[in-house]
Predict the 3D structure of the following.
Amino acid sequence: MNAKKWLIDSDLLIEGERGNPQMLDWLEAVENVATSDIACTEFLVGAYQSAHPEKRERAFQFYRESISTCPNESHVFEDFENAARLLGEAWRDKKGKPSLADALMAATAIRTGRTVATRNVQDFKACGVPVENPLV
Amino acid sequence: MKATAADVGRSFHEYLSRVMHGGVSVEITYHGRRAAVLSPLPKKMSGAEFAKILRRHKPDPEAADEVARILKEHDEHERKEMADRFRSAH
């Protein structure tokens, strides 16, 4: 059993909706998972913005029945301050091009001692946070 | 829910229990002003428990693709804007 504490990014939540067997197998092997406010928000943006009512409703249903049951690390003001630093430094020092959401997720993972689980490893590495892609 | 600092001080364990077990947040006022929030931390969940919940859901690649496509558009737009701003600032 993998004893790391994980913070699941929105791209992997989407893999959960897809029913990706690799994602499910990885989950079976890890001990402690959570997601974050920003990852949930990103998923919901995708659901709200869809122009297809059926897909929109199915995405909402997945959110209500699955994502919302996952423990959620809420952000505190310190996360926003640290996200600004991580984002600014990554771009300034040309370490990568993380988005604001990536940086906020990274800051929250650092504060809570979690490893980010995402397919977008490069941009989180640029933020200096422990990160792994469980789907490789 | 809201409570005064005096109430929370008198019945701290009761409020803490509501936060821990009821999942509610308590906004604490002090001399009539909003002063602090007592909120629950996330409960522990194993990956296997979350996988079990996900397996109950019928896989929906169509809806997943739609959400992924929209997030990718937002992501590319944000990165382009930031790159433009970064270039103009240097």
Notes: Chain B has two domains: 2-38, 47-89.
